[in-house]
Batch of 2 targets.
Target 1
Amino acid sequence: MLRPKVVVFILNYNSSDFKSIVRKSIESALSINHPSLDVVVIDNASSDGSFETIEDRFGKDIILIKLDRNHGYSGGNELGFRRYDDKKGSPEYAIFMHNDFIITNRDFVKDLIGLLERSEDIVLAQGLNLAGDGFHVSDAGYFVDWNFSVIRRYNGMQVSECPYKSSFISYASGECFASKVKVIREVKGLFFEPKLFECWDESDLAFNMWSYGLKSIFIPITVGLHHVSKSFRKVPDLTEYLQIRNRYVLRRHYLSGMIKALSTPTFFMLSLPYRPFQGFKGRIITRAFFDAYTQNIFCSSVKGLYNPLIVMPKKLSYVAYSSFVPSKLRRKILDRISNLTVTDDDLKASLRPFTVLADFYIK
């Protein structure tokens, strides 16, 4: 029986400070148990010698693509995929992983790709990603709530504490996820919007798919370890700017109706501590909001009819109070949501596809 072609894409940029982790990451990708597999390292014009180090060690075993400049996570992965596609043709499935992620389960592809092959309406899938200590969870996918806040599922829990259940998720973690290439390219036209550069890039992909009724899912298999790198921490001000700008752009682009109205108060209140217009951080906030309004970031990203998967409490008093008065109650609500499992029945009963009302009580 022919096995589908799978390609693993790893983005690299100035990684010499953690080169031993990058080496293990690439070695782990090469160890994946799948007969039709390519490993591609995309280099974002590294200037610290890390590209040459990777080429010397792995040049015969991987496909190396060197870009002309730093295009960020979004542009780097998108351009790298296109160049691979031009040379080798499109694979059936693509796996995107960070260069600080080390695969420990050589057979995870069988489970993720097998699920994608069996399910016509599921296009993105991930397993359980552990922190570098191997005992605690980094994430089991992400939920987004009615305020467009990100909730990392099971984060910090021990593996033994996690429910052994599959769950639909708002989006899959960029640490390591599998994707159905043909459907995504037919619907969205591209994987990642290069204008995002960094932050909320994998979110945009999943939200766009949800808007057409195409789903993201977590399945309870351990995939590997995530060692947080220093590659993007070198520009923290840029990171903060992109976090705010891209979050606001995606909120405007993908939310509609009641959910968009509910998200507005908290979204603006969370920026008040930064004193917009005043001080360095305030100027970053102000510029991010201004650019989100004025830049045509989504020139190529047409969306469908639905909201992405949004989770909110069924008890509307929780929603109202935590939206207008950020408090300990909000923290408790987010903790409850992080442990939820969203099933097919939950999606069918959603308020408006795909707004899931979670039924829980908080003292």
Target 2
Amino acid sequence: MCGAQTLAWLHIQDFELDAAFELGLLKGKWMRAIAERPERWLLQSFERVSSISEAMLGRAINKGVRKDCAELLPNWVDLSAIYPQTGVQRLRNPYRQELGIKCEEIVLLYSGSMNKKQGLELLVATMEMLRNRKDLVWVIGGEGPGKASIVDSTQDLPRVLHVELQPYDRMNDWLNLADIHLVPQKKEAADLVLPSKVLGILASGGTMVATSSANTTLGRIAEQTGRRVNPGDAKALAKAIAELSDKEEERRALGERARKIAEENYGINSVLGRFESKALSTLEHGGTKIHNHAKNSSSPES
């Protein structure tokens, strides 16, 4: 739309088209082939294409993006706004007061959208397996088309609290409410999306249990900061949650590691600094293209 005198950079947060087909929201090989044809043309028309994980970047390359045009550009998190609460500050977390959660109870928090790619039905099965653990409190926060089903499925389960989406100015308290963060994800969405909440969990020094394949960004993060289990395995998920619930010192050490990962890889200055460097490099190498086009064009240079 802007013409050949413009250098264009496309950043991909989610491969929504692929996710829709692989999760069964859209169906039909012919329909997918028709939809992917203009997508491939569009991807190949940019000087730079970036995405937020290595797996997603690999998918872009498989769609025809040249390797020398592909850049890894993860999301960033404000490390001064999201940070760990420890000791008394953690025990006095305002959400614990508001929700009536006792100091000795373990909070398992799912926070975010509720739709098909999360596979939230797995959480319900896991809650059922651990229903006799009186020390566990399940807090489910968020909105989406799957919420009504989750609320209905957990009515007879003990200590399951449903909370609306929370405002950003309370996000640090909200994330620090959790003793263990729950990050379920279906196998079909493994290299199509990377939940944005993961960076907030890391910055808050949170411990997580995620359902993800081993060779994904989410899987590697979960293995370093908690537990990773295979998607769809409720028994393994229940076991991982039970193990971490009984190991307070390990949770503390994993939380410290999570914060360090956030500081080293996902701070705003680190991520945007890399973006600035790559953007300047793109301009430098793309200057010849613009100059040649302007010289050969009958219209005035702009």
